[in-house]
Amino acid sequence: MKQNRREFITKSTCALGMATLATQVEHFGLMTALAQKTDDAQTDAPSDYRALVCLFMAGGNDGNNTIIPNHSDANLSNYTTYFNARNAAGLAIPQSSLLPISVPKMGGLTYGLNPALGPMTQNGNTIVNNGIHELWAQGKMAVVANAGTLVAPLTRAQYQNRSVARPFQLFSHSDQVSQYQGGRADQQTFTGWGGRISDLRTAPDNPNGLVPMITSINGAQLFTAGQTTLPLAIANSLTPLNQVLNPQLTGVGTTTRLAAFNELRTQDLSSNYIKAASNITDQAMQANSALGNNPMEVTVAFPNTGLGYQLKQVARLIKKRTDLTVNRQVFYVQIGSFDTHNGQLAGQGNLLTQFSQAVRSFYNEMVTQGISDKVTLFTMSDFSRTLNPAGVGASAGSDHAWANHLFVLGGSVLGGDFYGTNTSNGTPYPNLTMNGPDDADSGTTARGRWIPTTSVEQYAATLARWYGLPETNMSSVFPNYNNFISTGTNLGFMQP
Amino acid sequence: MMNRNSRLWWQILSASFVIFLLSFVAMAETDPNPDSPTPVLISESKDSLRALATSPDRLGRTNLSSLKSRAFMPNSRVVLYATNFEFLADEGANSVRLYVEDAKGRKYRFPVLDVSPLRGQQWVYALTVELRDELGFWEQPEANGDVLVGITWRGLASNRVRLAFGKTGGNIKDDEGAVPTPFPTSPINNPGSGQQPDTVGYLYSGDRVRFLEQATFGPTPALDERIRRIGLRTWLAEQFDAPYPTNPYPNIPLMPTNISDECRATTNCARDHYTQYPLQNWFFKEAFYGDAQLKHRVAWSLSQLWVVSGVDTQQSSHMIAYHQLLSKNAFGNYRTLMNDITLNPGMGNYLDMVRSTKNNPNENYAREILQLFSVGLFMLNQDGTLQRDASNNPIPTYDQDTVNNFTKVFTGWTTCEVTALCPNRTQGAPNYKDPMILNQNNHDVTAKTLLDYPNAVNKNIAAGLNGNTEMQMALDNIFYHPNVAPFVSRILIQHHVTSDPTPAYVGRISAVFNNNGSGVRGDLKAVVKAILLDPEARGNAKTDPNYGKLREPVQLATNVYRHFGVKSADLTTQSDGYVWQIIAPLGQNAFYSPTVFNYYPPDYVVPGPGLNGPEFAILTTGTAIGRANFMNTIIFNRVNVGAYTLTGTAINLAEMQALAAADTTSNQLLDTLNVKMMHGTMTAQNKATIMTAVNAVAATDSLTRARTAIYLIATSSQYQVQR
């Protein structure tokens, strides 16, 4: 029999007394849920399950070497345009090794994925499947092209004459990350768009949830921070679910020691730092109760990489969703080291291999769990990188830029195409000419930093709408949402 | 000519004079009472817990004693009245903060615009406050009833009084035990809780421990005793001259980039040369046992500012060379530090300057030296607050063009492979020990435009100059930017004292950074001293709910280890410092910062109260339990001897066990731990809770009793937060 939340709270806190109950209710963000709870609250909760998985490529993945023109059409930037920009420094990927994808929105022209996104057969233990390239033809993977941080739609002329606000601190890691994750580019935020969705949807969607709506397998991240809800943050799959938040207690007297450990967290809450630290520990202890039994194991083999371990943990939590009585979940995973100022060909190739292998395993596991159409994985990254390389030869890399190409995968994705607002050439994919119509840089030293035509908000709103965020909540989750209504806030890559 | 006798006399006199001078130096600065008075917010009358409040235009024209306060509208200005301050000459509104709590329990901070003494009643101050939140974590508070307001000053909190916000009433409860604080007709003369400084030594036991938490890797009985005898200022003087390090740096040779087969086949060769293992062990050993604690601690802070990470640094010798520069400059000048780290090949590799040339420039170092190491993204006032333009937006310090220009300045540098110039050059291995040198052929000699600011130094660099010259001009251009003082000062305060210092505190340190009193800018010794002796850092008790900082994992570990005489696993000798591997899972693997942004960002905001709290960025549900499990490991167990550690590491519990055995009520044990670990802040309630668990263990098992007590204190948020 399932516990409902009220029973759970009562059971888990009776030893601690009412003071703990008050703080736990507060920090769990359940106050609203309890206040709103009525006898028919259950009927308002969704009858199906849906999850969003945010995969952050930290450091700024170079989109220019991720999705490459693989055609010779003279009306659009083609392989030669790309090759000429990058070959001299040794940063061009040979055309013959590109993994072809056919793109209806580009008039059926062929583009190429980085070869690391395909089957990798060498090196034994990290290479476990055919990668994500296959999912394009299966219609399970889409690309949102030339997307990035924007305050409002912005032409090159407007960028240059500053008649429309630019995102603050373009090309700076920390700021661009926080704008992607915070969901607004005109000012700094304390919360992320995942966290804000969690604030609004926990009570209606997960009325009996035993864990927070949002989970990070990669520490505290702005994306997962809400105003009233905190994320569950747990270690990757090297630690089993029933041990990730388990306090180890050696020696005699552990029961009374644990009780005192818990009771101290009800004291001295007038200090805001003490209270904040105690809240986080409280939340961990409560989640530990929920995760403590029936650890789920996945069926599909995951690669032995950091990202593989993270996505495996996500897959276990999804498998445990019924035990945890959650209907909607948001997850955050991350893979780092994309800041390839040097050694990019090898470095990015290795990272994209890890990405592709781990994501494919995750997708396969979702298929095995019979839930692939309920789980959508999407990528974000600090920014893309300059088309113009930095350095030469094996050490060649690239510098910080702006608009990027992002992946969306899952059974509910209308895959096999590019999406996004059109660039200067009337297609979603930009003109790869330095100092050309899509370049933020100008003059002879322009390096190719594409101005986004599709905003983070348009991308995120399309995902949030599928997740179940009502239209009326869009502008509170995305404060600049209304700026993009004219360019379309549904990019169309998700099934209705 | 002097005869022999007179010469002798002269020698004696001179020697006495020197001794006199020396003793004068040592005694010149005695330590004052560290306790500031506790401010008091004044209530309407002797029967009311409601704030005495007026409109600003009524100030000075109102009979305050007969005033009945009313409701105040959002965004209006209101005058509150407070007493019992002792302001320094330049101290005023930016040293006082006003916190507000509404009926929902949400916390806000309203800006304090002015603090002025009342004419004729100078012991009372009028605080002009604007009724709008400036933290911005929540939406602006709803103006629908009473809120509780309190002020903080130097880490001390006043009483809280009610203020009608929008309208009077609502269901917010007064603080338990709150009493009316009517208008005082004379100074109330509450000097704080400390002893009077008419005794020899530094007898403020709470402040001694707090000081050692801020200045070292953790208090020890010996250090506590030393400071009790000689005081803070004399101890600082000793520390500034103490030889460093006590344990010599590991002497690791430069190795080829590709690991040789021979090295691969040799036990520990790869570990000792191609990972940071030797540096990490040395670092913790020095933290445990080093005599020059302050230098080690400041170098550690600087390593979290000028970040070079083992994630991208191949060899331990590379990182050791970098750390030697941090420690060499820890009490030196910031400008020299800028020069030394900029030319350090480890940094050159980490942020790509070593391969940036005029034809293939790389922006990485140019961007980060500005953003992270010196001026930051936005123009700052000298107290560290943001400057804002007419539309209330922050003002960027520089733009991409500036980064492009600095990128050109930093082109042409490479590791030094010229034996004549570089003593550490090693055949077949890149030279990461000596500073990088310039290859002028690879240097971009076009003209540059650098940072602009009032009276900017070297804003323009003409074409055709030598790269060495340009490097020094550009570093001066950065160094003299007005942001450097508040930017660096605030981060150092956060590392040592408190996460959310008042602007007044930052401003006092900035002023020292800008001028150490002898006209020198960037004197880190003076800056460190000012940070640690500031009245906001000092005091036996700190009651401000927003004072202090979450201990970072490294500090948390070294403090507990040092409280209890850390030793080898069998307690016979010193630990070799191999503890970093059990600290790393808490989110801080020393010398392996995940990115150049350090383990946690200085501007991280703690969810809920909306306060600045950098270390909270690595406190999650996962690492919170990890901290408890770490304590279980080191208190109930130890790091055992193994392949990676010949000594192992353990704490010595003999003394605490003896206390537990001597007094089966556990009072002695807990009272001692209260002084040692909590600098006297353990409440009766805390003590009762812990005692219940301790006394549940059989009295004969005094070791488990001692361990239980230490575990419960060390895992408590009350200890995890250093305040």
- Note poorly predicted spans of chain B: 15-28
Low-confidence stretches of chain A: 1-42
Average pLDDT taken over every residue of chain B: 93
Q: Proportion of β residues of chain A? A: 5-15%
What is the count of structural domains of chain A? 1
How much helicity do the residues of chain A have? 25-40%
Helix count of chain A equals: 15
User: How many β strands of chain B by DSSP?
Assistant: 17
Shape descriptor of chain A reads: globular
Rg of chain B, nearest Å = 28 Å
User: Order of helices and strands of chain A, N to C?
Assistant: HHHHEEHEEHEHHHEEHHHEHEEEEEEHH
List the helices and strands and how they pair.
The complex is a heterodimer of chains A (496) and B (723).
Chain A: H1 5-13, H2 18-27, H3 31-36, H4 41-44, E1 50-57, E2 67-69, H5 79-86, E3 99-103, E4 109-113, H6 133-137, E5 141-148, H7 156-161, H8 173-182, H9 193-205, E6 214-216, E7 232-233, H10 254-264, H11 272-291, H12 306-319, E8 328-335, H13 344-368, E9 375-381, E10 385-390, E11 397-400, E12 404-409, E13 418-419, E14 454-455, H14 456-467, H15 474-477
Parallel strand pairs in A: 1-8, 1-9, 5-13, 5-14, 6-7, 6-8
Antiparallel strand pairs in A: 2-4, 3-4, 5-12, 9-12, 10-11
Helix pairs in contact in A: 12-13
Chain B: H1 4-27, E1 40-41, E2 53-54, E3 77-83, E4 96-101, E5 107-110, E6 112-118, E7 121-130, E8 145-153, E9 156-165, H2 205-215, H3 221-241, H4 261-265, H5 269-274, H6 277-289, H7 293-303, H8 316-329, H9 334-342, H10 345-350, H11 364-371, H12 400-409, E10 413-414, E11 437-438, E12 448-449, E13 460-461, H13 467-479, H14 484-496, H15 503-514, H16 524-533, E14 549-550, H17 553-563, H18 580-583, E15 605-606, E16 611-612, H19 621-636, H20 654-662, H21 667-678, H22 684-695, H23 702-715, H24 717-720, E17 721-722
Helix pairs in contact in B: 2-3, 7-8, 8-9, 9-13, 11-12, 14-15, 14-16, 15-16, 19-23, 20-21, 20-23, 21-23, 22-23
